[in-house]
Write a structure and sequence with these properties.
single chain, about 600 residues, alpha/beta, Gyrase A, domain 2, Rossmann fold, Isoleucyl-tRNA Synthetase, Domain 1, 3 domains, 5-stranded parallel beta sheet, 4-stranded antiparallel beta sheet, 21 helices
């Protein structure tokens, strides 16, 4: 039974004894005592005045006196007008810390055989370009969300759908055919995804030049786009691909394999992974068959140009294209097929799509279409919609080659971590160059990940690399440094032979120590709330709050130099559990913490 329940039940009993009135526990509202007052919990007595028939101060005073007499966990109380502030006995907080210490995975609920199965889709890259800053936010959110859902007792399948077909893929392929001169990742020294991205940009440059020339000849922009020979070639290539043309398919497979090797390297470095990868080249035909089946059943209709549409006007939406006039699929068709394959492969209880908020309408339509097609799980899909990420310089554009590449950004973050650490005089003496480099990697990527995840996912965000690597404030390195500090204290205590486990409890502990234990005790509730709200930022900001509280304690109290042996052992125990919970919280976010900094 938690302390809030114990105190609530004690208040109910005290009210019955004092005023002869039976109060329901649900009517007793305990609040955390405000920082400017002394206490752990506050009970507002104004609702009792009708039955006490006394002034607020008098009612609070006699209620507090009876609680202090009858409930051993109430150490003392004070009254401020009609507010009864209750202080909990230090023995309770000491016992609570010892209990937390016995739980290696404090706050984490493991899955059982009967746990719900949740599938989380994230990343969803295109094979015509490398992963960029926007993909980083998507991958970090999806991976953290998967960890949080699993920490709440669910089985989780992490999945990725690779967009490996479509007109944009054909643009890169066509550009490589025309201007590549047989270039490969090996011959160029480039990662495969970077190489293909260069040709996507090259197509756009040639296409724009072609449009300019056509418009200079008197065409409007729309006429020039319709008459573009280059775009016509790309569309022809897509039709050939869908028809199974051997030459086009061979080129497509070769170039995609280059990209996948590059993606795998980036994913590994970013620290994210997947249990199952789906490819739209496999799923679009399933979606196409399903759409044609829906057409036969009258769920959809065909226009004179042979294109297939869904009329959603009865649901307050508009009409949605599902198959183009040439028979090729659109994204919606592919998503219908992918959903079917997933539910065929796994007994999924919930499907969560981690996709940016520009696709809100798409998922609203997808849910409706799946429901209309008779799939019971259509209405229950969850679109984890998140805001866009920008840099101080503004928006990114893939076609123009102004995208911030994920690999380049990680390189920059690690280099900045090294520079910042060296300027501050990092304490990494005695480590090998490889060990030192790994710590800078952990700090740099931790700064990147934390900065991305501490912001409410629904909001657009501005990512500033310089602000993210700051060893003070609400940043990843500050929390990592706090963890490293706790580990340093533990090592020194062990070297000094200080016995922590089984040490006698101190006679009294400070309010700051109580405050930290209260925070540690809140961690399971924070994890539950983050799972309910789909909110990695809740975990991130809790980790910062705990690190901040501990650092204030570290500066205000002696730990290893404390003369009282019981108090010293207790503070080391407190330190150990702060480190444990920080590590658990950060691991839920996919962030490593270094043993030294």
């Amino acid at each position: 039974m938690n302390i809030e329940t114990i105190i609530t039940e004690s208040i109910v009993a005290a009210i019955k004894e004092l005023y002869g009135e039976e109060m329901a526990a649900s009517t007793i509202q305990l609040q955390k005592t405000r920082k400017e007052f002394e206490g752990d919990f506050t009970y507002v007595v104004f609702p009792l005045l009708k039955i006490s028939k006394k002034r607020p101060e008098e009612t609070a005073q006699e209620l507090g006196a009876l609680l202090a007499e009858k409930q051993p966990l109430v150490a003392s109380f004070n009254v401020v007008k009609g507010f009864l502030n209750i202080l909990i006995a230090p023995s309770y907080w000491i016992d609570l810390l010892k209990n937390i210490d016995t739980k290696e995975q404090w706050g984490i609920t493991g899955a059982t055989e009967n746990s719900p199965l949740v599938m989380v889709e994230y990343s969803s890259p295109n094979t015509n370009k490398p992963l960029h800053l926007g993909h980083i936010r998507n991958n970090l959110l999806g991976y953290a969300l998967s960890n949080i859902i699993a920490a709440n007792g669910n089985k989780v399948v992490k999945t990725n759908i690779v967009n490996d077909r479509g007109i944009h893929i054909c643009k890169s392929m066509l550009a490589w055919q025309k201007w590549g001169n047989g270039e490969t990742p090996a011959s160029s020294g480039k990662k495969g995804d970077h190489l293909i991205g260069d040709y996507y940009v090259a197509f756009d440059k040639h296409y724009k030049a072609e449009l300019s020339e056509l418009m200079a000849g008197g065409m409007s922009k729309e006429e020039a786009e319709a008459a573009s020979p280059l775009m016509a070639e790309a569309r022809e290539m897509l039709v050939k691909w869908e028809a199974g043309d051997k030459e086009v398919r061979a080129l497509w497979e070769q170039m995609n394999n280059w990209v996948y090797e590059g993606f795998d390297e980036t994913y590994k470095r970013l620290g994210v992974d997947f249990d199952k990868i789906y490819y739209e080249s496999d799923t679009y035909l399933v979606g196409k068959e399903t759409v044609l089946g829906g057409l036969e059943k009258g769920v959809f209709y065909r226009r004179p140009d042979e294109s297939v549409w869904a009329d959603l006007s009865g649901d307050g939406l508009d009409e949605k294209l599902l198959l183009r006039s040439d028979g090729t699929s659109v994204y919606m068709t592919q998503d219908i097929g992918t959903a079917q394959l997933r539910f065929r492969d796994y007994a999924i209880d919930k499907m969560v799509y981690v996709v940016g908020n520009e696709q809100n309408y798409h998922f609203q339509v997808l849910s409706l279409l799946l429901d209309k097609l008779g799939f019971a799980w259509g209405k229950d899909l969850v679109h984890f919609s998140y805001g866009m990420v920008e840099l101080p310089e503004g928006k990114m554009k893939s076609r123009e080659g102004t995208v911030v590449d994920a690999d380049d950004l990680m390189d920059e973050m690690i280099a900045t971590a090294r520079e910042t650490s060296e300027e501050l005089g990092s304490k990494l003496d005695g480590l090998t160059p490889e060990e030192t480099a790994d710590i800078y990697r952990i700090i740099g990527l931790g700064a990147l990940k934390y900065f991305m995840l501490k912001v409410d996912a629904r909001k657009n965000m501005l990512f500033n690399p310089k602000e993210s690597i700051d060893f003070n404030g609400n940043t990843g390195p500050f929390i990592q440094y706090t963890y490293a500090r706790t580990r340093s204290i533990e090592r020194k205590a062990a070297d000094a032979g200080i016995i922590v486990d089984g040490a006698a409890a101190p006679a009294a502990i400070s309010e700051k120590e109580c405050s930290i234990i209260r925070l540690l005790n809140q961690f399971p509730a924070v994890v539950r709330q983050a799972g309910t709200d789909y909110s990695p930022s809740g975990i991130a900001n809790y980790a910062y709050e705990l690190a901040k509280e501990y650092n204030q304690f570290y500066h205000d109290f002696s730990i290893l130099r404390e003369e009282n042996a019981e108090a010293k052992a207790f503070r080391i125990l407190l330190t150990r559990n702060v480190g444990k919970v920080i590590k658990t919280a950060m691991s839920l976010l996919g962030i490593e913490v270094p043993e030294r900094m």
